[in-house]
Structures are given as structure tokens and as C-alpha cells.
Specification:
AON_synthase_class-II; Aminotrans_II_pyridoxalP_BS; transferase; 4-stranded antiparallel β-sheet; biotin biosynthesis; 388 residues; binds 4'-deoxy-4'-aminopyridoxal-5'-phosphate; 15 helices
């Protein structure tokens, strides 16, 4: 019998296409910004996580360029094995200072930071309680850890408490994991209540500030700052790739936690250190975040302006409740989301359709930037008004 062991892949692709779940990548051909060139045409960009408009900032570009000239392009190996640069520690100290934690550790991506942190602090005899809408990196970190996993309904603290009351005593350690800003909805986790719960049931609490760092909180330190929880016993995760305009991820927390991760986290120990260019760009971005609060203020002005316009002029759109620069409205099917996404693109607006399996219901995700102009925001609303 000769069969093709890979034939199922083509079949799967056909199934994905039939369900309108098929995805393809769009090619951009200039620097990131409030407008980008997509397939040779300038469009207004509501599709990036570059909330502060720093990914194309001259200062970040200059810092990255200088780092390449002085330190080369690659980090040449794992930091433990091949050594690291002063720049790596400077970045970690800058993150710890922004977050007001004892220390921080930089990973090569936010995804790897979540995998490494979760898999290091819990194992087979432990329990993870995970918000149903958590990012893939938290979910896969939980699986990698080997701990028992219970998903609690999105942001429902009462349901979480019921699970803890019933299950906590059956496990050695317990870790609650949550996004702080939910990336496909835009709402915030109930951090103070989660902290209370973790204290009551002797649990660790890991919060992913990927979409909050640089964006939320008086100094841009994230939801932890916004909720007045600075200094609380937390494992804070984040990325350098969104508001900080670079690449990489981090964990911030107690000196012991960070020291432990340097000795245990497989996604830090067994992977090459962040490149000098990415490290320098992220360091420059943190300086901008700390020195230019007006960028964050402008971002929130833009968010409020768009939200108000949408509520006044597009009341029929099912806007999900949001407290972040991520604004999503739901559509009945993946096909509808694709159609609206295409209509927007035809009209010069880049805002992606998000479909299952990424999210339970299809939607258009609009991501606001500090550098969007009033006219660009008004154009988005005008185009949406003409969408049936
Ligand atoms: N956590 C959340 C909530 C995210 O949205 C993302 C990126 N989409 C990550 C982690 C992963 O970060 P990175 O892109 O740096 O791997």
C-alpha cells in the first residue's frame, strides 16, 4: 500500500478555506506608522500594536543602528553560555525601574517569556487557573508546565473563587494567569480582585501586560500601576514589540524570581540572547515612554474621540466593552468579517478581520495609535458608516 502520509495537510487546508478561516499575510513596504503602504497603496493603519508610534521613530532607529555598528548583528548564543552585553542588563534595569520591581529578565519574545515563566514556577503537582480569553502564549505555557489547568469564565472572579475553594487544597502550588488587557477584546482583567483571591488562597498571580506597557497607567507602567497595585507580589510579563516598538519580551518581579528564572527558564537558557539592535531600540523606547507622557495622553485622546464617534454615528455596530486602544466590533460570521475587512481596505483603511479559532466570534479589530490624526479617525468612521 502506497499512501502519502502528508496528504491530510492539503485536506486540512481545504477545510480551513471552506470555513472562511484561511489566513494570508499582507506585505507592507515602508516604515511602520499611522499610514503604511499595502500592496503599493497608502492606507491608514489601524492594524498595528505600535500604540505610541515608536516602531518608526528616528531615536529608536538611531539607537539600533549604533548598537549594530558597535556590537554587531547577533548575540551569538545563549547569554549563560556565550555571555551578554551591558546593554542587556541596562534594558533589564530600565524595565525594573519602569515597573518598580526589584529586577527583570529579557527574553527573545513575549511568547517565550510566558512559556518560560509559567513552565518554571509550576509543575506536575500544581494547579493553574487561567482566564478563558488568555493569549495563546499563556495557554501554551500552562500546557508546557504539566500542571493541572482549569479555565475560568472570562474575568469572572466569583467562578474563580468557587474553583479555588474546591480545588486549591489538592495541589502543592497554585498560579492564576491572566492578560491585563485582553488583546482581542480590549477589556481589562479585574486585577485588584485577582490579587485578593491570590492572597486568600495562597496562589501566585501572573499578569501579562503586553498591551498595557507604555499605554496604561500614569507613567505607562501598565495595568498594575493603573489599579494601584505597584509593589504587590506579582509575576509581570510583557513584550518589547508593541508600544515599545522593538522585539523581545520580559518578566519583571522580585530579585529571587528573576534569579530563579535565569537558572530554570528553558526558553531563556536554551535560546540566543536578544540582538543588540532590538535591545538598544527597546531601551530607547523606555526612555521615550518616561520622558514623553504627552504621547500617551494623545493616544488616550484619540481612543476617546474614536469611541465617542462610533457610539454616536455607528450605534448599530456591536462595539465590545473596552478600556484600551483596542476597539472591536462583532460580526455574525467569519465571511462577514472578511467582507467588512475588504471593504475597509478598498476604502484605504487597514483593520484586520479576526476570526475563529483565534476568537470565539468574528470581529474587526481596530487598534488606535497616538500618531493617528483627527482626519484619519474621522475617515475610518465615515467608511464604516457606508458599510452594510
Ligand atoms: N501576550 C499577549 C497578550 C500578546 O498579545 C502577545 C502578542 N500578540 C504576546 C504575549 C506575545 O508577545 P511577542 O509578540 O513579543 O511574542
Amino acid at each position: 500500500m502506497t499512501t502519502d502520509p502528508y496528504a491530510w495537510i492539503e485536506q486540512s487546508l481545504v477545510t480551513i478555506q471552506r470555513a472562511d478561516w484561511y489566513r494570508s499575510v499582507q506585505t507592507l513596504s515602508d516604515r511602520p506608522g499611522a499610514t503604511v503602504v499595502l500592496a503599493g497603496r497608502e492606507v491608514i493603519n489601524f492594524a498595528s500594536n505600535d500604540y505610541l508610534g515608536l516602531a518608526g521613530d528616528e531615536r529608536l532607529i538611531a539607537a539600533a543602528t549604533t548598537a549594530i555598528h558597535e556590537l554587531g548583528t547577533g548575540s551569538t548564543g545563549s547569554r549563560l553560555l556565550s555571555g551578554h552585553r551591558e546593554l542587556h542588563r541596562e534594558l533589564e534595569i530600565a524595565i525594573a525601574s519602569l515597573k518598580q520591581t526589584e529586577d527583570a529578565i529579557v527574553f527573545s519574545s513575549g511568547y517565550l517569556a510566558n512559556l518560560g515563566a509559567i513552565a518554571s514556577v509550576v509543575g506536575k503537582r500544581d494547579l493553574i487557573l487561567s482566564d478563558q480569553y488568555n493569549h495563546s502564549s499563556l495557554k501554551n505555557g500552562a500546557v508546557l508546565s504539566g500542571a493541572a489547568i482549569i479555565e475560568y469564565p472570562h474575568c469572572e472572579v466569583v467562578a474563580l473563587k468557587t474553583q479555588l475553594s474546591q480545588q486549591r487544597q489538592n495541589y502543592r502550588r497554585c498560579l492564576i494567569i491572566t492578560d491585563s488587557v485582553f488583546s482581542m477584546d480590549g477589556d481589562l482583567c479585574p486585577l485588584p480582585a485577582l490579587l485578593e483571591m491570590s492572597a486568600e488562597f495562597n496562589c501566585m498571580l501572573l499578569v501579562d501586560e503586553a498591551h498595557a506597557t507604555g499605554v496604561i497607567g500614569k507613567t505607562g507602567a501598565g495595568c498594575v500601576e493603573h489599579f494601584g497595585c505597584t509593589g504587590k507580589p506579582l509575576i509581570q510579563i510583557g513584550t518589547l514589540s508593541k508600544a515599545l516598538g522593538s522585539l523581545g519580551g520580559y518578566v519583571a518581579g522580585s530579585a529571587n524570581l528573576i534569579d530563579f528564572l535565569r537558572n530554570r527558564a528553558p526558553t531563556w537558557i536554551y535560546t540566543t540572547g536578544l540582538s543588540p539592535a532590538d535591545t538598544a531600540a527597546a531601551l530607547a523606547a523606555i526612555q521615550v515612554v518616561q520622558q514623553e507622557p504627552q504621547r500617551r495622553i494623545q493616544l488616550w485622546r484619540n481612543v476617546e474621540y474614536l469611541k465617542n464617534l462610533m457610539q454616536q454615528q455607528l450605534p448599530h455596530l456591536k462595539l465590545l466593552p473596552t478600556e484600551s486602544p483596542i476597539l472591536c466590533f462583532q460580526l455574525p460570521s467569519p465571511g462577514d468579517a472578511l467582507r467588512v475587512g475588504q471593504h475597509l481596505k478598498d476604502a484605504g483603511i487597514f483593520a484586520p478581520a479576526i476570526r475563529p479559532p483565534t476568537v470565539p466570534t468574528s470581529r474587526i479589530r481596530i487598534s488606535v495609535m497616538a500618531t493617528h490624526t483627527t482626519e484619519q479617525i474621522e475617515k475610518l468612521v465615515a467608511v464604516l458608516r457606508n458599510t452594510d
